[in-house]
Design brief:
The protein is mostly helical. It folds into two domains: 1-52, Homeodomain-like (Arc Repressor Mutant, subunit A, Orthogonal Bundle), CATH 1.10.10; 62-194, Tetracycline Repressor, domain 2. The chain has helices at 9-27, 34-41, 45-51, 55-80, 85-98, 100-108, 119-136, 144-167, 178-194. α4 packs parallel to α7 and α5 packs parallel to α8 (144-167). The longest helix has 26 residues, at 55-80. The radius of gyration is 19 Å and the shape is elongated.
């Protein structure tokens, strides 16, 4: 076991979060435990709880890192492809493919009963939604409420496509046609609301 003075608190936070990500990527978030993290980093479970309040906080911090990673890719894609939503849909699918277990946890993990979703975590979500809504504004005639609604609809639809295509839950929907489904969904939805 490592000694408490081997690493600073910041270094321990990073060790814990990287170990948690590794376990999630290999086994899925349902198999994550404080014991497994502590074994991975060579510290006691007690050390984990000196750094983080509980396992839920570790999961939320991992989710925040995943969101920041996704947000970075979204901003880059929007810049490279001049705010093209079909191209952004492809970027989103690629992110899911490369980070399936982390993305799965991001969207499927539920807070324990009695725990409140922390404001800092909501802020990360809000920043990403603002980025996409802002990119949609020119297409939607600078109608901010419509852009915000469209962002939510596109997000939900893309989540469904990624979940079905990448988890293998529906045999008729495969990874091969994920891009085609996403393109049809994004173009069809945006064309539809522009005609209203």
């Amino acid at each position: 076991m490592g000694r408490r003075n081997d690493h600073s608190i910041e270094q321990l936070q990073e060790l814990i979060l990287k170990a948690a990500e590794k376990i999630i990527e290999q086994e899925g978030y349902q198999k994550l435990s404080a014991r497994k993290i502590s074994q991975e980093i060579g510290y006691t479970v007690g050390t984990l709880y000196n750094v983080f309040k509980n396992l839920n906080e570790i999961i939320l911090k991992v989710n925040a890192r995943t969101l920041i990673n996704l947000h970075t890719k979204i901003k880059l894609n929007l810049t490279q492809h001049h705010n093209s939503m079909p191209e952004l849909a492809k970027c989103y699918i690629d992110f899911w493919k490369s980070n399936f277990q982390l993305a799965n946890m991001l969207f499927n993990y539920s807070m324990p009963k009695g725990e409140e979703f922390p404001p800092w975590a909501q802020l990360e979500i809000d920043k990403m939604f603002l980025t996409v809504s802002s990119a949609l504004l020119p297409t939607l005639k600078n109608n901010l409420p419509l852009a915000q609604k469209a962002t939510s609809v596109l997000w939900a639809g893309m989540h469904g496509i990624c979940t079905l295509c990448l988890s293998g839950k529906m045999s008729i929907i495969s990874l091969e046609n994920a891009y085609s489904l996403a393109d049809s969904f994004v173009r069809g939805y945006l064309d539809g609301i522009l005609d209203l």
